[in-house]
């Protein structure tokens, strides 16, 4: 019994061992298929995270001259609304935005793209139209003290007499004057940053200024030009205040750049000022050594600044001739100068319409005036104005322009006497008239007459003239070398016995020969030296 049991145990052990080996084989087979991993974690599904990108835009904000902005901008998310306020500086006003259609000074910008905007400002006008321009004097220490004193006196005189007034087109109520002795380097620069030089009125579209560079030699030699140039340039400021077109830039189609009218008036103005205040004939100075042949042969050339008009002598000559012609047709000397200094500029001429304006103001066409110049002597002294004329009388002249018209009036005088009788006196009378005729010479062949008489217009070579007893006939003579006489008979010469009595300035070459006939008849005008220069004057009752 004992042995059996032992065999049974052995058999059981074998069975267990066999089972253990099979388990090992199975375990090894699994390990091989799992790449030798001894642990496999549970299988799971991966989690995905989504990131959203926000679009951003740049806002740039700037301010033009004259103000500021509340923000210069930055980088903002798409759709962000940014508030911006534009604030003007003192003396300026906000006028809008560049880069957006919004017009309010405070705006909200919603950003949907990169954006650039600019706040715009404009200087508030302080101009009071009609008030005098305020001149600001910048007088350099290089100027002699006595000159500075005289400068102030000249300006006071000019401002009081011919005031230059503030106008909207002048853009600024003030005008700076810069003056210095050219012995020192130019101490001033203009608003554009350029060194100043010469003598001029300049501008840059925002303001005007006066430049007076006085040569040192003019102080050494006591040249009157150191004073006259002040009046010359001031007159240009006066022109600016009268005419918007004169103030326009030279390249502006509405500007005015006719040399002889622009500069000829200024040189005459300065000459009259010096004549009046210093008892000095400045006309001799600016015309000295000048050749006026071109004035009489090609006056149209003086319309351009390219003509090379030294000291503006030729232009000044033409203005003197125009004044002379105006006197011939009934202007007083003061009224003639007032017309060229003031009335013409008030008409606001430009380089396109100036001839029309000229004829409207002066009643003479430019073409006819140029023809008149052909007969003028080049002796400019014959045209010098009277020594008694003043700029005050010129600007204040209120005289009317003489006309050559016949005025017929009818008057009825009805009165009742104390004896109860009634008398009625009805009469028709013809008022005396005054006629003016300009006289020039065409060589030694003919006088050239232009004007009016009792029959209307008078023009041509040695034409006949008609008037009535009691009328006044003014021959405005400008015929150097051809003394103009009124005589009784055509073949009696200019002896005293043949001269018409009561004629003023009979035989003048440059003056007004005036006559009021008292008897009807046929009379004549003649040149003392050339008998062919002869015309008839018919006087009727």
Description of the structure:
- This protein has 541 residues and is an alpha+beta fold.
- It has three domains: 56-123; 134-396, Orthogonal Bundle (Neutral Protease, domain 2), CATH 1.10.390; 434-540, Cupredoxins -  blue copper proteins (Immunoglobulin-like, Sandwich).
- 30% of the residues lie in helices and 27% in strands.
- It has helices at 2-33, 145-161, 216-220, 225-242, 244-247, 259-278, 282-287, 293-297, 313-328, 333-346, 354-362, 366-373, 391-396; strands at residues 56-63, 67-69, 73-77, 81-88, 92-98, 106-110, 115-123, 134-139, 174-181, 199-203, 208-214, 408-416, 422-430, 434-442, 446-453, 456-461, 465-468, 472-478, 484-487, 510-515, 521-527, 534-540.
- It has a five-stranded mixed β-sheet with strand order 16-15-14-18-20, covered by helices on one side.
- It is elongated.
- 31% of the residues are buried.
Summarize the structure.
The chain folds into 3 domains: 56-123; 134-396, Neutral Protease, domain 2; 434-540, Immunoglobulin-like, CATH 2.60.40.
